[in-house]
Write a structure and sequence with these properties.
alpha/beta; Periplasmic binding protein/LacI transcriptional regulator; SBP_2_dom; Rossmann fold; six-stranded parallel sheet; binds beta-D-fucofuranose; disordered N terminus; about 325 residues; elongated
Length: about 325
Amino acid sequence: METAMKMTRRTVLSAALCLGLGFGIAGSAYAEKPVVLGFSQVGAESEWRTANTASIKDAAKQAGVTLKFADAQQKQENQVKAIRSFIAQKVDVIAFSPVVESGWDTVLGEAKAAKIPVILTDRAVDAKDKSLYVTFIGSDFVEEGRRAGRWLLERAKTMPAGDINIVELQGTVGSAPAIDRKAGFAEIIAANPKLKVIRSQTGDFTRAKGKEVMEAFLKTDGKKINVLYAHNDDMAIGAIQAIEEAGLKPGKDILVISIDGVKGAFEAMMAGKLNVTVECSPLLGPQLMKVAKQVLAGETVPKRITTEESVFPAEVAAKEFPNRKY
Ligand code: GYE
């Protein structure tokens, strides 16, 4: 009896193995087809972006996803071209981080017509038709702006009487983080009429532009400037150089507030040159791979997936630095 059972089991097992192997060789449905993901990245404008790209590439490898990666060099036209090429290549899913918010309806309509799901990561689009994308994974940029504003509102309580003049370095014109970080900050500082934004200009999220624009601010307003609010760490780091070259002390003569929380910001805080950074996590890769697989498996995913983040003032920089992953 026992032998018979064993025999049967063995027979069934080997039959199954044979079948599996047979199908495997023929390249059947048994061999799981890797997911092909077309990803259009903004560019390589900042430390944040470099970490974001690394996260996406690593996560794709880990998840066994075949990644087709295109760098748009901060140009919307390049992203549109990349998306069209992904559609032509019939990838399974398209993900992208839109450089600016508007102007996507046509190309996203083309992806929809080709039945290729689109996932937004990091930055949002302002499309009225929400069916043009499945979900948006990324930070709440308005809240980040508010967090920067709240830090200053608190700090202002201990500052000398009189106006507190702020200069603002905006991110890329028309990008979701630039629009939202400006709005969130303005909303909060409105509570204290002493806080005045005297100048606001784009530094395109880069160190070089941040420095250049800060130099111009210093030339015209020099000693009047009390605070710099930069929409990302890279522009703040560029501006810090400009402040030093103008013979002033960043972090003291001019308070410096920025967003992202990259290692460079922690180094600047430990050197006493940056006062606070509001965290914005670029480590979106693992979540993107997970969501891409869920979407392709026909599961419903939330329309908005928000990243969890905190605020790091200079006082905690040295303690937090060893824990930073980007
Ligand atoms: O803050 C900045 C990058 O879209 C959140 O883009 C991202 C922003 C980030 O260049 O450093």
